[in-house]
Structures are given as structure tokens and as C-alpha cells.
Write a structure and sequence with these properties.
By secondary structure, the protein is mainly α. It contains seven helices and two strands. The model has no long low-confidence stretch (mean pLDDT 88).
Length: 121
Amino acid sequence: MDTSGDVAGDAQEPRYGGFTRFELELEFVQCLANPSYLNYLATQKLFDDAAFVAYLDYLQYFTRPEYAKFLLYPGPTLKSLELLQQERFRVAILSPETVNKMIEEELKASMVEDTPDGTTT
């Protein structure tokens, strides 16, 4: 996705492997929409690291419209980011049942048409 000319950064911003910090953070935050990835992060004990939890809080800036517009799947991405603010969820995502429930919910949500009555396809 082209992030030039917006809040995403400017030409003077440092690059990391050819990408701006914003681009790297955008890529990472979008990965949070994947329940299996959340489970992986939990199994690696990253949610036990106070610095990593603080980073997740920092990423809340993606909830602002000027940043959310860059998300490919804003619904699941922002929902996961919100849930990750809760310690209870960070523990629960270790459970395969929680992962499967999230996957099922996302599948159900993707089947609902964007209609006023919420009918399914």
C-alpha cells in the first residue's frame, strides 16, 4: 500500500531495511488480526514482557482515523489490538479454544453482507 504523502512519514525519516518505522509498524499491527499469530506471540512469552505490552499500547495510535485508513482489515486488526490491552486476553490466547473461537467469529463476520438488516450471503 502506498503510504507516501500522508501521515505515514516523510523523506527525512530513517529507514530500516528500506522501510520507514510507520511501514514496519503497519505491517506488524496488521499481523495482530491473525489469532494464530497472537497465539504464537503468547507461546513465545512476549505478553509477559512489560516493554512489549507497552509497545502494544503505543500502537493504539492506529485507532485514529488518519492511521486506521491504512489498515487492510481494520475490524479484526483493531479488535485484536483492543483485546491485547487486557491481561486476561493475553493469557487466554494461549488456549487453542480461544484461537479457534476467534477464527470462527472472524469467518462469521466475513460472511455478513454490508446490508442494513445484516443478512448473510
